[in-house]
Amino acid sequence: MSESLPERAEVQYYFGAGPAQLPKPVILQLSKDIVNYENQGIGIGEISHRSKTAQSIIDNTRENILKLLTNNGKYELDQLRRDYEVFFLQGGGTTGFSSIPLNLNSLKGKGGYLISGSWSLKSFQEAKRLGSDVVTLYNDKTENNAFKGCYKGDYSKLLEQEDDLKYVYICENETVNGIEYDATIKDLAKACRDKNVELIADLSSDVFSREIDIYDYGVIMAGAQKNIGIAGLTLYIAKKNLLDQIKANGVDSNLPIAFDWNLQNDNNSCYNTIPMVPLHTLNLVFQRLLANGGIKEQETINIEKADKLYSVLDKYSTESTEVEEKQRIVKFTVDKQFRSKMNVVFNLITLELENQFAKEAEANGFLAVKGHRSVGGIRVSLYNAVKLEAVEDLIKFFENFVNKL
Ligand SMILES: Cc1ncc(COP(=O)(O)O)c(C=O)c1O
Fold first, then answer.
1. From the Swiss-Prot or TrEMBL record, what is one GO molecular function term (predicted)?
2. Contact status, residue 239 vs residue 217, Cβ threshold 8 Å
3. What's the CATH number for 295-403?
4. Pocket flag, ligand 1, residue 289 (CB < 6 Å)
5. Which ligand 1 atom sits closest to the C-alpha of 93?
6. Which residues of the chain have a pLDDT value below 50?
7. Is the CB of 206 under 6 A from ligand 1?
8. How far, in Å, from the CA of 222 to the mean position of ligand 1?
9. Count of beta carbons in the 10 Å neighbourhood of residue 65
């Protein structure tokens, strides 16, 4: 075993969908803190989660999340502290979506699911399997088992389908299918508000990649291992009065204690052992985001990365008139309106070409560009830590690949 840290390049060409790369300064600081945290002679993963040190990290992480959610001053920190609770549970996205119907079981009414890809579909199936009263309000799945996007109609009409909804569930960014809600999500939030229905969202693969208005949501949950950290932890941001309502009604007897939002929140996320290495990682990521100007700054970079990549893919798409026919090799299934800025998913015209591209990309150091095993194709994930330079170099590589055809 080595006694020193390995070298690592400034720009990584790693486009994996999760776990994903972290910013180099974060990973370096984390490595040091795993060995010896703040000169205490012991590492962050070795201390008690109930120690003063751990408690102050949990408090500070929560505070940094709320600061990020102020959207650079749009909301007062005190107002957010009053209205929302932030807590963490062991787990990831799956424990997150299983915990949702169980915690909301004590409220009267149905959960309405909008299915725009494989994660929202799984969440619905899980809620049903757990015996919760849930319905699909919209399902985008086509006969070919593909998904094209999100709902395009009038959300208030859509919600009228059911008169006893208590929540509407969405997955904001479908990691496998490359589908992300666009600005029309505000219409959904308004329709929910008008009907007094809580909007509950899985943000596992787009959390803090773009500014949101937290007041649009009843609960947000996100597994940590894509945009904000490493696997092992789920972040929850929940409206205080929703948690109070659940508490007043009493918890469902089927709710495992480790999933109990109020129990965890009342115990500063330490009812059971919170994994401190993932939690501290989150905080390092949040400190960096805040130091770099907050979510808006990051969003601007993310838009530039995605725009640059999609515009080159459009240039070489089967629909293009810009290039000669043999170079029209890119096929999109996702509707332009709902293209994800986090997971750019596309096909090449033949399976052979896709395999060749993935193989050559890998050989040239552009790692983890293969699509999810369930849908195939190519997937390039552009989470916060992926630098613009990495995307520009991938674009050059792609153009060279096409020019050789
Ligand atoms: C949007 C979304 N939700 C849920 C999950 C499930 O997360 P986990 O593997 O942490 O349970 C994933 C995993 O990729 C995801 O992308």
1. O-phospho-L-serine:2-oxoglutarate aminotransferase activity
2. yes
3. 3.90.1150.10
4. no
5. 7
6. none
7. no
8. 8
9. 23
Answer yes or no: is the C-beta of 354 below 6 A from any ligand 1 atom: no
**39 token code pair:** 């000169």
- The answer to whether the CB of 205 is under 6 A from ligand 1 is yes
- Give the position, in ligand 1's atom list, of the atom nearest the Cα of 231: 10
Q: Assign domain 43-291 to its CATH architecture.
A: 3-Layer(aba) Sandwich (3.40)
Output DSSP code: residue 5. P
Cα(236) to centroid(ligand 1), Å: 14
User: What is the predicted pLDDT for the residue at 44?
Assistant: 97
Q: How far is the CA of 372 from the centre of ligand 1 (A)?
A: 12
pLDDT at 142: 87
- The secondary structure element, H or E, covering residue 52 is helix 52-69
pLDDT digit string, tens, across residues 219-251: 999 999 999 999 999 999 999 999 999 999 998
Asked whether 124 lines ligand 1 (CB < 6 A), one says no
**Which pairs count as long-range contacts for 193-197, CB under 8 Å and 24+ apart, including other chains?**
194/156, 195/156, 195/159, 195/165, 197/112, 197/159, 197/165, 197/166, 197/167, 197/168
- What's the CA gap between 249 and 169, in Å, rounded? 21
Q: Tell which residue, 382, 358, 354, has the closest CA to residue 368.
A: 358
How much is the pLDDT for 80?
98
**pLDDT tens digits for range 140-167:** 998 888 999 999 999 999 999 999 999 9
Cα Rg of the chain, angstroms: 22
What pLDDT is recorded for position 5? 87
Coil, helix or strand at residue 144: coil
Domain ranges of the chain: 43-291, 295-403
Note the pLDDT tens digit of each residue in 365-399. Answer: 999 999 988 888 999 999 999 999 999 999 999 99
pLDDT score, position 52: 95
Q: Whose CA is nearest to atom 4 of ligand 1?
A: 93
